[in-house]
Amino acid sequence: MTAYLIRNVRVLDGEPTDLLIRDGVVAGAGAGLTADDATVLDATGLVALPGLVDLHTHLREPGREDAETVESGSRAAALGGYTAVCAMANTSPVADTAGVVEQVWRLGREAGLVDVQPIGAVTVGLAGERLAELGAMADSAARVRIFSDDGHCVADPRLMRRALEYVKAFDGVIAQHAEEPRLTEGAQMHEGEVSTRLGLTGWPAVAEEAIIARDVLLAEHVGSRLHVCHVSTAGSVEVLRQAKARGVRVTAEVTPHHLLLTDDRAETYDPVFKVNPPLRTAADVAALRAALAEGVIDIIATDHAPHAVEDKECEWAYARPGMLGLETALSIALDVFGPRWDLIAERMSRTPARIAGLTGHGLDPAPGVPANLTLVDPAARRVIEPAELASRSRNTPYARMTLPGRIVATFLRGEPTVLDGKAVK
Ligand SMILES: NC(=O)N[C@@H](CC(=O)O)C(=O)O
């Protein structure tokens, strides 16, 4: 195993220092370190962050390897500064058995670019009718702790209650895609002034808020853990704020795109902007930013949703919802919050690692901790070119935008997965 001596790096907001990485851990920190056997990296101007952790990634394997594979998604993640991702269950077949989650987990290990932690489905086939084998997935080699029907809401309150009760035994968490399906039938975008003008069927904010309100009450009743996926409205923030004030065990995520983009993008009729939940209003964006800074929303999660060209480059109504996120998330966080490194580390690494129970991740680079870290050049600016992304898909909403920040290197347990801004394998 090669040792690395990273010179002149700032760990978060600290003064420039040196970090020695050896045998998978941070072996030393301090100005003027020496190590004859180490490869020296000059990191002047760079910032070291704990490796990012994504709680919400669609890797598409098994089933849609044309859109993404565990390997291509892992590479995209490493290039985005991630050292761990949680893979959503809406694959084909659905990750609703020990066999499928073990397959995804094994593929992640083989790719070896990030730790891939499978998420298990809550219900068989994501059909919302019967609970999946949650216990078997928890006991499998993949040790599943997060369960989600993401892409679908667990709409039946009785099933949701039983799922929350079931996972309590092993401190699992139900990650809910909050969407009351009866309120979003045929929906194409956020319900509001723009949808009225364009004549597109709207997805009202209350469809999200009603499910979150119900679920925090269920989680409180059961005393179990709830995680709310991709929160998108100001009203949802208020429901979460009240629930947290009462001590409900609820955590929540917001995506980079909901922190930046608004529903008027639909005026282009470019389906790259079609996503679930939909892009909302400027007032929602402002509320989400404030909630994330405050901690009412706990984390940024990408909802990286790769789609093949034929599923995206078609009429708006026929296009699949979802957009890429892994390779641009840190840049969006920098764009929105500036170089608030402690906030970024907390919301994109430490807290998601804690929610997912990923020990060894989410730890600030310091002597003795596993060397899962990323080096960022905050002064760099880059133009996003879809063809240059490592993802197999091209559906980034940031095409040709200039974004701040560049990931220069990423280390997974002391081995570089990215060096000089390029994937190592
Ligand atoms: N977020 C998205 O717009 N799409 C997700 C699933 C979903 O939540 O609909 C996908 O898997 O593509």
Automatic annotation (TrEMBL):
PROSITE patterns for the chain: DIHYDROOROTASE_2
Free-text remark on how the cofactor is bound: Binds 2 Zn(2+) ions per subunit.
Ranges of residues in domain Dihydroorotase catalytic: 47-234
EC number: 3.5.2.3
Catalysed reaction, written as an equation: (S)-dihydroorotate + H2O = N-carbamoyl-L-aspartate + H(+)
UniProt cofactor(s): Zn(2+)
Pathway the protein takes part in: Pyrimidine metabolism; UMP biosynthesis via de novo pathway; (S)-dihydroorotate from bicarbonate: step 3/3
Binding positions (Zn(2+) 2): 150, 177, 230
Gene Ontology cellular component annotations, sorted alphabetically: cytoplasm
Keyword field: Hydrolase, Metal-binding, Pyrimidine biosynthesis, Zinc
Transmembrane regions: none
Biological process, per Gene Ontology: 'de novo' UMP biosynthetic process; purine nucleobase catabolic process
Keyword Metal-binding: yes
Active site: 303
Binding site for substrate: 58-60, 90, 276, 307, 321-322
Residues involved in Zn(2+) 1 binding: 56, 58, 150, 303
Family stated for the protein in its record: Belongs to the metallo-dependent hydrolases superfamily. DHOase family. Class I DHOase subfamily.
PANTHER family on file: ALLANTOINASE (PTHR43668:SF2)
Job of this protein: Catalyzes the reversible cyclization of carbamoyl aspartate to dihydroorotate.
Protein name as annotated: Dihydroorotase
Organism, scientific name: Micromonospora sediminicola
Gene symbol of the encoding locus: pyrC
